[in-house]
Design a protein that fits this description.
Structural class: alpha/beta
Strand order of the largest sheet: 22-23-1-24
Strand content: 25-35%
Largest sheet: 4 strands, mixed
Helix content: 25-40%
Bound molecules: ligand EPZ
Number of helices: 14
CATH superfamily of the largest domain: Enolpyruvate transferase domain
Mean pLDDT: 95
Radius of gyration: 22 Å
Distance between the termini: 15 Å
CATH class of the largest domain: Alpha Beta
Length: 434
């Protein structure tokens, strides 16, 4: 296993580009099962999760051809309906295979996804949606058995106790596009990644209205055809780079940072004192002018609220903002795996329920730390970039799930960061396996 080694304290300067959005690419890969024609997908990030989803599609019978690092052609001429445990358990997002399998085959048997480090990952809203569309839903032997012989359009309310569900919306949407009749999804998620999925489905011939809002109207069609689709830029990767510029008090221009997708982060960074400019709709420049940031209060919410996937990275920035910041997690209330590791680096953070109370310190100090979930790992990279001294991050396979060689993207900005085999890490620093 590799580790990341950083020497902190260097302001970042220059230009970096975000790649394609992981959370758009995953449901879009699943959507290729909805047609027997080839679908070409471009600007796909080169990530372990993507390669894994491609493996699952092949297992289900699709032909999967990788044209280059960021382009794929997928053709599901014939499809199996069983997505087995040994594959699904490794990536929760494979839950979004249920919808396309139901749409295409009128049946699906998909392993019930497990939880993960950010907390329980229920799928009750997904299953409620399928049941509303006339499916028989049975959980048996750790698998979800879906019988969609009577699949038909209906009105479905998908709001849950934490608001809308991104993959739940994607799942029901992908069943509805081939369901006879009209489906209305109320309290639909309107994350940019779901909008991108809608655009792909429309390019395949689906009839969807209300794209980008919380109410979608889908008129089922007989068949969908192939198309070519370019994935939108990854707003979370772009936001992570903006926060890297901020925490190192640098001056960085991020391409692929679509202002419309990052409005809540832009609002909070401006409130914290960042100097932000917008060379164009897809580019944001952040200058810190060597100043520390003001403490701000953040509450994560479904889009267009502050993204939960940027919460850990924002916490890292606030550890250096003189004063008191409160970061409240309304989407995944337990999503604070980054906090104990940031505390190892000298951060003053207390967790009270679903909130992190952060007292800004003058500096963080480098330390050996452990990556845990994908975005907590990104927060540790940011902290290591700003900390005095050296930081070693273990278990960076978590990072590889959502960031395409983040070290190679940060080095041209002046970061002293390197990816090394674990054997290069001083023995006395290697953390014990949990
Ligand atoms: C997607 O997960 C993303 N993953 C997550 O990104 C992201 O954090 C999340 O949306 C929220 O934006 C992918 O797109 C692959 P949800 P998803 O259903 O769809 C509750 C990352 O770091 N809920 O929108 O699984 C749920 O527990 C990952 O890239 C139910 O109660 O999240 C949560 O509290 C992490 N019942 C809230 O809704 C359900 O049936 C939002 O979850 C479904 C969800």
């Amino acid at each position: 296993m590799d580790v990341i080694h950083l020497k902190g304290g260097l302001p970042l300067h220059g230009r970096v580009a975000a790649g394609g959005a992981k959370n758009a690419a995953l449901p879009i890969f699943a959507a290729t099962l909805l047609t027997d024609e080839p679908v070409t997908i471009e600007n796909v990030p080169d990530l372990s999760d993507i390669r894994f989803m491609a493996q699952i599609l092949e297992h289900l019978g699709a032909s999967v051809e990788r044209k280059d690092a960021h382009s794929w052609v997928i053709q599901a001429a014939s499809v199996e309906s069983l997505a087995p445990y040994e594959l699904v358990r490794k990536m929760r997002a494979s839950v979004c295979l249920m919808g396309p399998l139901l749409g295409r085959l009128r049946e699906a048997v998909v392993s019930y996804p497990g939880g993960c480090v950010i907390g329980p990952r229920p799928i009750d809203l997904h299953l409620k949606g399928f049941a509303r569309l006339g499916c028989r839903v049975e959980v048996r032997g750790g698998y979800v058995h879906l019988d969609g012989q009577d699949l038909h359009g209906e009105a479905v309310f998908l709001g849950g106790r934490h608001g809308s569900t991104a993959l739940g919306t994607a799942n029901v949407l992908m069943a509805a596009v081939l369901a006879p009749g009209v489906t209305r999804i109320e309290s639909a998620a309107c994350e940019p990644e779901i909008v991108d999925l809608c655009h792909l489905l429309q390019a395949m011939g689906a009839k969807i209205e209300g794209v980008g809002g919380h109410a979608l109207r889908i008129e089922g069609v007989e068949k969908l055809h192939g198309c070519t689709h370019r994935i939108i830029p990854d707003r979370i990767e772009a936001g992570t780079f903006l926060l890297a510029a901020a925490i190192t008090q640098g001056d960085v221009t991020v391409a692929g940072a679509r202002r419309q997708d990052l409005a809540s982060l832009v609002d909070k960074l401006a409130e914290a004192g960042a100097d932000l400019s917008f060379p164009d709709e897809d580019t944001i420049r952040l200058r810190a002018h060597g100043r520390a940031f003001n403490p701000v209060d953040v509450i994560t919410l479904p889009h267009p609220g502050f993204a939960t996937d940027l919460q850990a990275q924002m916490c890292a920035l606030m550890t250096l903002a003189p004063g008191l910041s409160i970061v409240t997690e309304r989407v995944f209330p337990n999503r604070f795996m980054h906090v104990p590791e940031l505390q190892r680096m000298g951060a003053d953070i207390a967790i009270e329920g679903a909130s992190a109370i952060i007292k800004g310190r003058p500096a963080l100090s480098g330390a050996p730390v452990m990556a845990s979930d994908l975005r907590a790992s990104a927060a540790l990279v940011l902290a290591g970039l700003a900390a005095r001294g050296e930081t070693w991050i273990q278990r960076i396979y978590h990072l590889d799930r959502g960031y395409e060689r983040i070290d190679r993207k940060l080095i041209p900005l002046g970061a002293e960061i390197e990816r090394l085999p674990e054997s290069a890490m001083p023995k006395e620093l290697i953390g014990e396996e949990a």
